[in-house]
Amino acid sequence: MRQTGKWRKRLRWSALGVVTLGAAGVLFARPLAEAIATAALRDSGFPEARVSIAGIGLDGARLRLDSLVAFGALGPAGERYGLALAGRGTLSGPLLIGLTPEGVVASPLGCLEGSVEGLEVAGEAVAAPQGLRVCTPAAGEVLRWGSAGLRLAARIESPRIELTGRRILAEGVEADLAQDAAAQAADLRVASLRPTGKPADFAPLALAVRAEQPAGQAIALTATVTGADGVLSAGGEGRHDPASGEGRFVLTAKPIRLKPGGPGLGALSPRLAALVDEAAGTIGGSATFAWTGKGLRSGAQVKLAGVTGRVGPVTVAAASGTIALTSLLPPEVPAGQILKIGLLDVGVPLTDGTVRFGYGRDGRLSIEEAQWHWAGGLLRSDPVAFRPEAPKGAVTLHAEGVDLARLFAMIDVDGLEASGRLGGSLPVTLAGDVVRVDGGILESAGPGTLRYDPEKPPSALQGDPGSPTGMLLGALTDFRYESLRLTVDGQAGGELSVGVAVRGANPAFYDGYPVALNLKLSGALDRILRQSLDAARIPDAVREGMTDFGRKDR
Q1: 199 contacts 363 by C-beta, under 8 angstroms
Q2: Burial class of residue 352, CB neighbours in 10 A (0-12, 13-18, 19+)
Q3: Partners of residue 533 on adjacent β-strands
Q4: In the chain, helix, strand, coil percent, each to 5?
Q5: CA triple 395-331-301, angle to 5 deg
Q6: What CA–CA distance (Å, rounded) separates 444 from 407?
Q7: Is the bond into 447 cis (omega within 30 degrees of 0)?
Q8: Is 167 helix (H, G, I), strand (E, B) or coil?
Q9: Which residues contact 455 (CB under 8 A, 6 or more apart)?
Q10: DSSP assignment of 91-158, as one string?
Q11: How far apart are CA 157 and CA 133, in angstroms?
């Protein structure tokens, strides 16, 4: 409270300096007027201030002063008023001073033109390349000084203000300021707030902030933010302590529902829209801003519910969870964030997944751990990091408990059945929009069955009962394997080549004689057995009839 009283006293001295400037200009001429006004500003917290008067005259019953005010270093004034400031500023233009029954009043003739150089607010670099203006408010006067004390009011305007360190541009900036003996208040409006980088982290926003400070108390802050073609609506509140120069503000957004055919992700974030296509689902959350004399910190909590989209060749569905951000500009997600994902389709559908990840200031997405359900088993990934806009890298997926029946069901070939469990590894390479598997191996954990008995075999596999194809189909109608090994190579979502090496027997085929088969599956099964087949450890009579298919296992 003592500090606020001193603040008001200094403002009164500033007002007294303006009034004295007018009287001195008439009575004691320009040099003395400049000296008195300069002393008043320096006592108000601007120790380097200097006032120059280019002209003195009358405008009706009011005194007109054509003046230039060089405030000098702004830092000391910021310290006195509880705001971390740096830089220098000037203000120039005609000022009218008059007397009324309520006291002395002062207003610009039109607007005063201002400029700033090297301005920093709470450690953030701020530039006004097109300058700013201090104008008469709707009430009609900037200053009134009388028996009721000091009352100040002004509108500050700037077409363009830049947060250069953050690469953020504010356009159409207006601020209405008011102060009297009981309180002071400010209303800030920004027509468009947007990043200058490409692609932009967020779409242009409209901002309105109100600050109120009852005498002797902290400053209360409220704000509303709208944008994204009406999709985004947020509100928040916070406080600033002038004594310590510290403050905090929390902005909470209403849930945003992205729908096909409506405003998409690009209405919120062009950067995300460049990474994610066909986005849908619900997004919500809150952002926190905290500041001290050393600078501004930001963070957020983003909530996802049923979010679907496509990132390059990968389709994501039913993603849900809460993600923490430790910085908004640039975005930074600390390690250990967890998302539940209903479906990840990389050409092979992975379901019921859990991903633990982070996102660094260097733009790299780090997958620390991922686990998926696949074909009745589990897939776990090794750690991997890449840039989402240009994914490139390699990761190994480790499989366990994969159900061979469900795996072969993905091939969707009539008459093909299998049983057993598999485990192994699938090395995956990411290169832009292409996901490849090279040298993948899945092996059986024990014995099982492999049956191919279609109601109508493909023409390439039809043959007489004694022909090689007929005997081959006969062996596969009820094959009991002891070991089975799959090799997987190719592009996910494209042409996959699957090799099958299996050893076992058919009890009804040559009295269960042991057989080793090597099959190459590439595309539909009506092409599989036409491409390659090695058979061994079969009776001579069978081998002689199948020489076109393979070689003898010696």
Answers
A1: no
A2: middle
A3: 519
A4: 15, 55, 25
A5: 100
A6: 13
A7: no
A8: coil
A9: 414, 415
A10: EEEEEEEEEETTEEEEEESSEEEEEEEEEEETTEEEE-TT-EEEE--TTS-SEEEETTEEEEEEEEEE
A11: 5
Q: Which two tokens stand for residue 113?
A: 């033109």
Six-digit token pair at 82?
């509880």
CA 550-552-554 angle, 5° bins: 150
**What would the two tokens of residue 345 be?**
């389709």
**The pair of three-digit structure tokens given for residue 148, joined into one six-digit string:** 């009721």
> DSSP states of 435-481 as a string?
EEEEEEEEEESS-EEEEE--SS--GGG---TTSHHHHHHHHHTTEEE
How, if at all, do strands 333-345 and 365-374 pair?
Answer: unpaired
Assign 23 to helix, strand or coil.
helix
- CB-based contact 88:259 (threshold 8 Å): no
Q: What is the pLDDT along the chain (554 residues), one digit of tens a residue?
A: 444 444 444 444 444 454 444 444 444 447 776 786 788 678 767 899 998 988 888 888 888 888 898 999 999 888 876 678 899 999 999 988 888 887 778 888 889 999 999 999 888 899 999 999 999 887 677 777 767 777 778 899 999 999 998 899 999 999 998 888 788 899 999 999 999 988 888 899 999 999 999 888 899 999 999 987 788 999 999 999 988 889 999 999 999 998 877 777 888 888 888 888 889 999 999 999 999 878 889 999 999 999 999 877 778 999 999 999 999 878 899 999 999 999 988 766 789 999 999 999 888 989 999 999 988 999 999 998 888 777 788 889 999 999 988 877 776 677 888 999 999 998 988 887 788 889 999 999 999 998 888 877 766 566 666 666 677 777 888 999 999 998 988 887 677 788 889 899 999 888 888 888 887 765 533 333 333 233 323 333 333 333 333 333 33
Beta strand extents in 138-245 (DSSP E only) = 143-146, 149-163, 168-179, 183-195, 205-214, 219-227, 232-241
Tokens 């059986």 -> residue: 444
- SS3 assignment, position 180: coil
Distance (Å, rounded) from C-alpha 188 to C-alpha 499?
68
How far, in Å, CA of 420 to CA of 367, rounded?
31
What pTM was estimated for this model as a whole?
A: 0.71
